[in-house]
Design a protein that fits this description.
- There is one protein chain.
- By secondary structure, the chain is of the alpha/beta class.
- A seven-stranded mixed β-sheet has the order 5-4-3-6-7-9-8, with helices on both faces. It has a two-stranded antiparallel ribbon with strand order 1-2.
- It folds into two domains: 64 residues; 196 residues, Rossmann fold (3-Layer(aba) Sandwich), CATH 3.40.50.150.
- Strand 4, helix 7 and strand 5 form a beta-alpha-beta unit.
- Helix content is 39%, strand content 18%.
Amino acid sequence: MASTSVPPTPQEWTVLSMMEWATAYFTSKQVDQPRLSIEWLLADVLGMPRLQLYLHFDRPLTNAERDSLRDGVKARATHKPLQYITGSTSFMGLEIQLNEHVLIPRPETEELVEYALSRWTISMQDPVVLDVGSGSGCIALAVKAALPDATVHGIELSEEALVVSQRNSEALELPVQWHHGSLAEPALSEPWSKSQSIDWLLSNPPYIHPEEASSMHPQVKEYEPSQALFTDDPVGLYQNLWTLASSVLKPEGVLGFECNPLTIREVLDVGTRLGFEGEIVADIQGHERFIFAHRSH
């Protein structure tokens, strides 16, 4: 049996036999969640929801399906993230296209958007929203999907990532205005150059210090874009965000940041010094993850 791919044998490979073989193979390669990995790959190749696999255990795989699956198994054995292999992931019910130029959206970022929507739409039905560091565009697109009459802007430094966000916007038929911009230059041009024009500012910026990389899973640090993960100055980066918020938020505007639990209190202190009043909110795992704030009055 070959050690680097689905083994060629005369036997008829079924969904169940492939699932069992690949689970053992991934386990031998110390792949995270081996059973889930092959389920995800099989579901993608067969074009069916993952749970439906259990209704088709005896279904034989065609040669074309086996060939397609072989590539996915080989890639997953190197710890390549499943989302990059299949080219998409789900975010708040939206199918988000991905590649190696964008960060894979996390459940915590869904929490950021869900909290903003549940908390802020009471007072602002059709907000002007600015998503800073858009990546795949998941935050901006989820807001637009939930609030069709909102005006949504997304800023992203990486031109490759902007291509992905624009592609997602078109595929989902969710119009968002995308812009190329840098957090290092918060005096941005484009429509928000007009002072106090934004109702909501949301951001999930790079917030991991490079020294933390040694404790991270290989599929994260070896495959996801480093500029979307790491920054040498996590607190200083958020200072740029607070400065931007000071310029563009309307008097009653609000902001929400996803943060590193290790530095979140320092980040909030910066905002307080710059005239904001905010609170820290824990994620579902109990980690201090989010800052929600408004101008001090």
